Amino acid sequence: MEHGEGDSPPAAEKKGAVEEDDFGYRLFPDRNKKPQSFLVRSLFTFHNRCQLMLRMTLETNPYAQLLLEAMKQSGCTVFNDRHFSCEDCDGCVSGGFDAATSQIVLCQNNIRQQSHMNRVVTHELIHAFDHCRAHVDWFKNVKHLACSEIRAANLSGDCTLMNEIARFKFGLKGHHQTCVRDRAIRSILAVRKISRETAEKAVNEVFDACFNDLEPFGRIPHSKADARRAYRDFQNRDRYNANL
């Protein structure tokens, strides 16, 4: 399970004991429950609100629209009912990508604003895009996980100036890279029972290559306007390639 945008406390190793890694599934307890009927789920406000916000994101958000189009072109069409699941989650986690089922989990009890939903969906769609286009070993290769977390933090809007100000974090030159690095490390520690030193080492070893991998955006979209331009360029690139 790949931890998405959120601020849950990192998991720490226990000294003197080998603890089995649950790959972050403890943060998503509904993954192990039997699915509820539509009638039962429809009675819960959280679930209804989550579904409505998800639909709004998929229909109007340029970050999500570009990623959905890119995945479709890569042979991995995303379907709302199949590939997204609104569930209750533990802690402050906002979402996750379940590589075992190719499903994005949205934490309906922790996502309360449309802007937050937009960011979480984008973050998890980047993981899904990476899963589609590459042979990512999510569970055994921490460098693979680190690379996707770097890309998700870099391209999803997690580290925009306004989001960092809201977190009371300020910086000048190089602050975006610092934010991306920090959030990638936090995400890894949330879902893997490894030391901070190991997580930092993995991030550092792949940072330059993965930070500069801007597919499918072609640029770092620092705002919705950037994302719209990237989406337009992506569509034009597709038309150009079709005419070759």
TrEMBL record:
It comes from the Eukaryota. One of its GO terms (molecular function) is metal ion binding. InterPro entries: Peptidase_M76_ATP23. GO terms for biological process: mitochondrial protein processing; mitochondrial proton-transporting ATP synthase complex assembly. One of its GO terms (cellular component) is mitochondrion. Keywords: Hydrolase, Metal-binding, Metalloprotease, Protease. Its EC number is 3.4.24.-. Belongs to the peptidase M76 family. This is Mitochondrial inner membrane protease ATP23.
